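User
Class, as today's exercise, I want you to study this protein, comparing sequence with C-alpha cells, and judge whether sequence predicts the C-alpha cells.
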Amino acid sequence: MTLTSKVAQAARKRTERPMLRVLVVKDAWYLTPNMIRVVFAGPELDGFPADRDGGNCKLMIPEIDESKAHFIERLTSGPAPVRRTYTVRKFDASAKELSIDFVAHGDEGPASRWASSAKAGYFLGFAGPSTPKLTQFDADWYLVAADPSAIPVAAVALEAMPRDAKGIAIFEITAPQDQQDIDAPEGIEMHWLVHPDPHQASTRPEAFIKSMEWPEGRVQTCIAGESGVIRSLRDFLSNEKKVPREDTYISGYWKIGLIEEQHQKAKQDGAA
C-alpha cells in the first residue's frame, strides 16, 4: 500500500471528519517581512473544492527532519502531530495550487517555525477546508477588521465583495512594510495601523471602530483577531450598535499567553 493510499484509507475510516491529505510544498516566500506565503501543489489536491477560499483548515505539523513515511504513520496510528488552524487564502483549481499565509513568528510556534524554513518538497498534513464564513454580500456597507492572524480571511472577504461595495477595512500590522496588495473594491476605505509588538495587547483597531463615524444603512462585518479585543468589539456591535447576529462575523483567533489548544478550551468554557 502506498503512503497516499494509507492516508486516504484512514480518512475513509473517519468519514465524519474532513478529508485528510498530505500536501507537498511547491514554493514559499516572504510576502511581507512578517508574512510567509506557502504554495502547495500536486495530485494530493485532486478533488479539492474550488469554492473554499476563506475557509478554515487544520494543519498537522511534522517534526524537524521527520520523514514523510514516519509522519504518515503518526497520522494513521499516532501519536498525533501538533495541529494548528489556518485559512485557505486561495485555491487555483486549474493549476491545482493551494496558497496558505503564515504569520512569521520565528521559532515561537510549530507552524511558524515550519513555514519559516519551508521550501519545495516540504510537507504537512491538511484537513478541511470548512465553508467560508462570508458567502453573501448584500449590505449597504461593510466593516472589516483584522490583526495579522486574520488578514487572510479579511482579504478573501474583500476580494469576494461586489465591485461597487462600500465600507471600511482596518488592518493591524507589525511594520509599515507589512501592507499587502488586496483587490478590494474602490469604495472600501483601507486603514493600516502599525502595532510593533504582537505579544502585547493592542486597542487601536477597537478604538478606531468605536470612534469612527458610523455610516447609514445595514452593515455586515468580518472581524477577527485577539480574543480580548474581539470580546469587547462583539459587545459593542451587539449592544451599542444593535447589529444583528446574522450580519456579524466576529471571531477570536488567538489569545495572548495561550497556545491554540488552551485558547480553544477557553472558548468552549466561555472565557475567550
